[in-house]
Design goal:
Elements: H1 15-18, H2 21-24, E1 35-37, E2 40-41, H3 43-49, E3 53-56, H4 62-69, E4 75-78, H5 87-98, H6 101-121, E5 128-134, H7 148-153, E6 156-158, H8 170-176, E7 180-184, H9 198-209, H10 218-221, E8 225-228, H11 230-249, H12 259-270, E9 280-281
Length: 288
């Protein structure tokens, strides 16, 4: 919504958005909070604010919201903006909802053109094996999970693509022996607009490589490990994170892809924030 320049239409947010004051420059006040999260909504507050539309994601309580709000003429729109494979659809939908079709189309093509470049450059290339970890040890990604297509679209061979459980044992990672590892932050690092410090990045990596038996994993042996902050991976339905992972895996095949430049554009052009470095470890330059 912010990226298509429609944030001025937003009159209510959940607490999770409200409390992230750095990312939103204190735009949202306490009297705009409509619930703790999309699954814990305060319908009285929503009715009091009288919006035309309530936007929820598919894993929110949208069916209950429809029943509660229909008598008051408030429509419910489902937009799964965090799923990478829904990015185009989300752009089109939000452009239509806010009457910002031209902005939404520009945003869509900015990222999809880069994704098309990745697909073209990697066509027929043998995929490199990757273990992806989100915050906690053993918390990976499988089909249907939020992060699956971020990894898939980067041209990675996800070593747990056939797993039935998003939680995997440490021994299973050792057995899979990935060539590369990508980890998003750690549970005790709140990395929103401001990234983890260099020391925090180093501590996250040290914890990962010092796990029993992990010194036998090819990715650890060859130091093929990329850390992403919680903020940097998530931009544009996680396509910003996808760009970093693709470049990490295939730097020589993607000479015209510069993920740090993409991230800067995401911040300055689309989120109206100042660019801030240090969201990856090792750090990327604009030329990388």
């Amino acid at each position: 919504i912010n990226a298509i320049d429609a944030l001025d239409c937003v009159i209510g947010v959940d607490y999770n958005i409200y409390q992230d004051k750095e990312s939103w420059k204190n735009k949202f006040t306490e009297d705009m909070v409509i619930g703790q999260s999309q699954k814990e909504l305060n319908y009285e507050k929503i009715i009091e604010l009288a919006p035309e539309v309530l936007i929820l994601t598919g894993n929110g309580t949208y069916e209950e919201a429809e029943q509660q709000l229909e008598p008051f003429g408030i429509k419910v729109v489902v937009c799964d903006a965090y799923y990478t494979d829904q990015f185009e659809k989300s752009c089109d939908l939000l452009g239509q909802v806010f009457g910002k079709e031209e902005n939404a189309d520009e945003l869509k093509h900015y990222f999809m053109d880069k994704l098309d470049y990745i697909n073209k450059q990697l066509e027929g290339v043998e995929k490199k094996t990757l273990y992806f970890e989100y915050r906690r040890e053993g918390n990976t990604t499988i089909p249907g999970n939020f992060f699956y297509y971020m990894v898939e679209y980067a041209g990675a061979d996800n070593v747990f693509k056939d797993s039935q459980n998003v939680e995997v044992e440490s021994e299973a990672v050792i057995a899979a022996n990935p060539e590369y590892i990508v980890k998003v932050s750690a549970p005790d690092v709140y990395s929103s607009y401001y990234p983890p410090t260099l020391e925090e990045h180093q501590a996250i990596k040290e914890e990962l490589i010092s796990r029993p038996g992990w010194d036998e994993i090819d990715a650890v042996k060859n130091d093929n490990i990329l850390l992403l902050s919680h903020y940097v991976h998530g931009g544009a339905s996680k396509l910003v994170g996808c760009m970093y992972i693709a470049k990490f895996l295939y730097p020589d095949l993607l000479p015209d892809l510069h993920p740090e430049e993409v991230f800067r554009d995401w911040l300055e052009k689309y989120q109206k924030l100042d660019y801030i470095e240090g969201h990856t470890y090792p750090a990327y330059t604009f030329e990388d």
